[in-house]
Amino acid sequence: MPQITDQLQDLTYLSWAQARQSSGTAGSFLKSYDDIGPRKVYYKLSDYRIGTGIVGHECINEIVVDRLLSILGIDHLQYRLIHANVLVDGSVFETWLNASDDFKAAGESKIALDTYYQLERHQDESPLSFCVRKGWAHRIWKMLAVDYLILNRDRHGANIEVLRNPRTRTLRLAPLFDHGLSLLWQCHTLEAIRAFDVMADTRVQSFVGTHSTRDNLELIPKDEFPRLGKLHEEDRQALFDGLESATSQEWRDAVWSLIWQRWCHLETLRAS
């Protein structure tokens, strides 16, 4: 199945519901699913606003981050990007949306990390200390590094999930997912793109960390700084291949600048 479906599809049969999110925006991030075929497929839209329509590019962000995490060797949910007509609030919109498959294995159920933390934490135990005690430190360090690299604004407690298998009595963190509110999120005009500081320490949501992706890197023990796959300048083509009709050259240039400059800073920290 191709990662990008450029030919316009008719997905007006899907029903959309608002997803949990903590971005503080006036918009909505709508989700849907289709279980008619042999496997359940999940769909999500970029930022939708009543009276305006679908204004965001979060679904395109997901594809760029998906490709980046594949290069870096990070376990993550894989997304597809589909050019489609959708029906929302009685109106048809032409847009780009994401599709993904269920990442749960047979017999597994999922629970949001913030909910699981409230159920299982020790008194006065922080979410980060809780994850370390559960044996997930290495996964958390990689997540904090990734969220700095892509400037992820919204790693709230439901954007990290715990997968439980009662038959085998095993627990594991789900693959990383939901990176729409990253990169140049909310830069919808050329002026906003040009004015955006790709190295700015923007305030973020981080359930296991602080409101700064840069400060969150300081939470990683020096001798446990994660080794990621190598990013090269020639990887730029792989990140944006096929997105020419969905994005502007200025947007792609700015997104690459953000990723590359932050990658170089990560490499400097790792080397030190």
Shape: globular
What class do helices, strands and sheet pairing give? alpha+beta
Strand order of the biggest β-sheet: 1-7-8-4-3-2
* CATH fold description of the largest domain: Phosphatidylinositol 3-kinase Catalytic Subunit, Chain A, Domain 5
Low-confidence stretches: 20-27
Share in helix: 25-40%
Would you list the SSEs in sequence order as H and E? EEEEEEHEEEHHHEEEHEHHH
Q: Span between N and C termini?
A: 42 Å
Q: What is the average per-residue confidence, as pLDDT, rounded to a whole number?
A: 94
In percent terms, what proportion of residues is strand? 15-25%
Q: What is the highest CATH level, the class of the largest domain?
A: Mainly Alpha
Largest sheet: 6 strands, mixed
User: What is the name of the CATH architecture of the largest domain?
Assistant: Orthogonal Bundle
Number of strands: 13
